[in-house]
Amino acid sequence: MRAQATGTSPAVPAGAPGGELMGGARTVLGLEPEERSAHLRGLPSGLALKLFSAMAHLRAFDERAVILQRQGVIGTYPTYFGEEAVQAASVLALEDRDWLFPTYRQTAVVTLRDCPPEVPLLLWGGHPGGWHDVMRYRVAPICVPVATNYPQAVGAAWGARLRHEGWVALAYGGDGSTSAGDFHEACNLAAVVQAPVVFLVTNNQWAISTPIAKQTRVPRLAEKAAAYGMPGVRVDSFDVFACYAAIKEAAERARQGGGPTLIEAVGYRLGPHGTADEPSLYRDPKADLLWASMEPLGRTQSALVEAGLAAPEELRELRSRAARELRDVGDRLSELPLPSLEEIADSVHRDTPWTLRPERLHEPTWARLE
Amino acid sequence: MVEAIGRALAQVLADDADALLMGEDIGVNGGVFRATAGLQQRFGDDRVIDTPLAEAGFVGAAIGMAMIGLHPIVEIQFDAFVYPAFQQLVAQAGRFRWRTQGKYGLPLVIRLPYGGGTKAPELHSDSPETLFSHMPGLRVVIPSDPRSAGELLLAATRCGDPVIFMEPKRMYRRGRQEVPVEFSASDLEASVVVRPGSDLTLVAYGAMVEVALAAADELAADGVAARVLDLRSIYPLDREQLLAAARDTGRVVVVQEAPRHCGVAAEVAALLQEEAADAMLAPTLRVTGLDMPFPLFQSEDQALPSVPRVLAAARAAIDY
Fold first, then answer.
1. Are B62 and A155 in contact (CB < 8 Å)?
2. What pTM does this model have?
3. Residues of A in contact with B69 (CB under 8 A)
4. Is B179 inside any structural domain?
5. Which of A188, A350, A366 sits opposite B54 (nearest CB)?
6. In this complex, which of A134, A140, A151 lies closest to B57 when CB atoms are compared?
7. A252-280 pLDDT, tens digit each
8. pLDDT interval class at A219 (50, 70, 90)
C-alpha cells in the first residue's frame, strides 16, 4: 500500500472563495502528472478501477434519486453530488467486517456492500422497507440529526476491542456536526479508551446555509484532533486516491491498537443541501462554478486515462452501465407492499405492549368494562 | 435496596459474558451510592467501566455496544444528569428496533437513581419518568423495595429492548427485606397488589409506595380497607390490574412524586375514565409533585406527596 505516497494539495481552484481551506490537504490528483500516474500504477491491481466503479455507482444512484424526487416517486432527498470520492473510498478502504455509521448524506454507502439500491430509496420514499438490514451489512441506520452517530460508533468500536475482534468502526459527519456536543464527547471518549474508530468529517464548507466561518473559529477541522490527543489528517475530499490512502492508514492504525483518527475530507458542497434547498439564496453561484472543476468523477477519469490504467471508452462504459443498472429502480420501488399500521406498530418492541395491539390503533381505542 | 441492586448486577455479570457496567465513578469508588461496590475488583475494569463525565457520549457509546451484541447496563449518577443523554435515548435508542423493522433490538439498561427526600442539591431530586414513558420504544420500570429491585433489574437485562430502570434513591437504605440468594426475573409489565383492600385503591410506585402503605394503615384505623397497587411498570401500564382496581374498589387515588401535568397519574386517570367510567364511584384523584422545579431541600417535604396529602385525597374519594 502506497498510503504515504501522497503530497499536499496545491489543487485549489484559482480564485475560489476560501481557497485557503484546501491548504494542507493530502492529495494524489494534485501531484505532478508523472508522480500521479506512478501512484495510481502502484496501487494494488484493479483497485483504481474498483474505486472508479464505486464512484460511478454512487453518482448514478444520486442522479436517479434526484430524478425520482422530481417525479414525486420519493420525498425530499439529500443529494451527495461531489462527495462520491470520499464516500467510495471510505467503503473500499475498510474491510467488510468493519462497521459504518452513516448520516443521511451517506444514504447509499450501504449499496456498496451489496444492499439493493431500492432499499435506501424506499427510505426516502417514506416506506419502512427502506430500513436496511443493520447486522447483515454492518451499517448502522442513518443518523438524523447529525453527530448522534459519533458516540455510537465509538461504543461499537470499543466493544470490538473489548472482545478482541479486530474490526474497526467509521463514523461520517460534516463540518456542521463538529459543532455538536456529541462530536466532542465522542472524540474525547474514543481517545481516552483508544477505541478503534475513524471519524470521517467531510468539510464541504456549508451546513445548509451556514458557512464554516459561522460554525467554528478553527477553519482546519483536523486541528481539533490535537485537543483530544489523536491524529488529525486533512485530505482533499474530491480525490478518491488520497481519501483511500488516508482512511486506510487510519483504519489500520486503529486495527493495530493505535486508537482513533479524525480525518477532515475538505472540499465544497457542489450541489444543494437537498432537493428542497436553494443555495442561490445564501451563496454566490459564481463560487459554485469555480469549484465545479473539482468534480471528482471527471478528475478521476482523466487521471486513470493519463496513467494508462483504462481507456476513455472503458470508463464511459462503466458510467453508462452504472446508470443503466439504476434506470428502472423507480419502477421497482412500488413492488414492495406497504406494511400495515398494525405491522409497523408491532416492530417497535420485541414484546409488543398492549398499547400497540391492533385494536388500540383505531378508534374506539377504549373498551367498556364488562 | 442498593445492596439488592448490587447483588443483581453481580448476578448478571456472572451469568452473562456480554453484560458490562458503565458509568461515572462506578469502578473503584463503587458508584456514589455504592450500588456497584466491589464489582470492578471482582469482574475487572473491562466489565465495570468508569467513563468520562459525559452522559450523551457514554449513553451513545452504550447504544453502539448494544448494537453489536453487548449488553451494557449504564448508571446515570443522578436523575437530572440524564438530560444531556436525552437525545441519545429518545431519538436513537428507542427507535432502533423500529428502524430495523422489528428485527433487531438494543439490549440496554439505563439505571437512573431518582427522586427527592434525600436533602440533595438542585438537580439531584428530579422524577423524569414521564419524559421517557411518553417517548416511543422505551420501557420504564420502577421498583419500590429490595426484592422488586433485584427481580425487575434482572428482567430488564433480558428484555432485549432499552429499559429506563429508575431507582427511588430515597429507598436505597430504607425498608430492609429478605431477598433470595439468586434473584429470578419477574414480569416486566406486571404491577403488584402490595396490600389488599376493597374500599379504595391507592396507586403508587417507587418511593410513593411506602407513603401509600402508611396512608392505608391510617385508613384501616378508620375502617376503610385501602388496596395499594405498586405499578412497577410505568410504560406500559398494567391495564388489567388498574381496571380490576376500578371494578373492585370504585375509587382510585394515584400518588406520584413527579410534577402533575401530563404525568403518570394523569395517564392512569385517563385510562380509568375511558375504560372504567361505569365502575367509578368517585373521580380518580391525583396526589403529585408540583409543576415547578423540585424545591431546594428545606422545602422538599412540603412538595413531596405525604401521608396527610394522600389521606385527604382518599377521604375526598370516599366521601364523594
1. yes
2. 0.95
3. 159
4. no
5. A188
6. A151
7. 999 999 999 999 999 999 999 999 999 99
8. confident
The helix/strand count (H/E) of chain A reads as: 14, 9
Residue B177 belongs to a domain: no
Whether A238 has its CB under 8 Å from any CB of chain B: the answer is no
Residues 264..323 of A with a Cβ closer than 8 Å to B: which? none
Give the chain A residue nearest B22 (alpha carbons). Answer: A155
Q: What is the mean pLDDT of chain A?
A: 93
pLDDT in tens, B77-99: 999 999 999 999 999 999 999 99
The CATH number of the domain holding residue A26 is: 3.40.50.970
What sign results for the dihedral spanned by CA atoms B17, B21, B27, B29? negative
Closest Cβ–Cβ partner in B66, B98, B236 for A355: B236
CA-nearest of B203, B305, B320, B312 to B252 is: B203
pLDDT of residue A17: 46
Cβ–Cβ below 8 Å for A185 and B52: yes
Neighboring chain A residues of B59 at a CB cutoff of 8 Å = 151
Contacts of A140 in chain B (CB under 8 A): 64, 67
Note which residues in 214-273 of chain B have CB less than 8 A from chain A: 235-236, 239, 243, 246-247
A172 touches chain B (CB under 8 A): no
Give the closest residue to A113 by CA, choosing from A99, A123, A103, A126: A99
Strand order of the β-sheet with B285-289 is: B192-195, B226-230, B200-204, B252-259, B285-289
A261 neighbors A282 (Cβ within 8 angstroms): no
| DSSP characters over A189-210 | HHHHHT--EEEEEEE-SEETTE
Query: Cα separation of A246 and B103, whole Å?
Result: 35
Q: Would an 8 Å CB–CB cutoff place A347 in contact with chain B?
A: yes
Give CA separation, A65 vs A123, A274, A353, B62, in Å: 11, 11, 37, 34
Residues A230 and A310 in one domain: yes
* Host domain of residue A346: 339-370
Does A237 fall in a domain?
Answer: yes
Express as a percent the part of chain B with pLDDT over 90: 99
pLDDT at A272: 92
Phi, psi angle pair for A172, to nearest 5°: -95, 155
Q: In this complex, do A151 and B139 lie within 8 Å of one another by their Cβ atoms? A: no
The per-residue pLDDT for A6 is: 59
Do B141 and B234 fall within a single domain? no
Q: Is-contact A119 A132, C-beta < 8 A?
A: yes
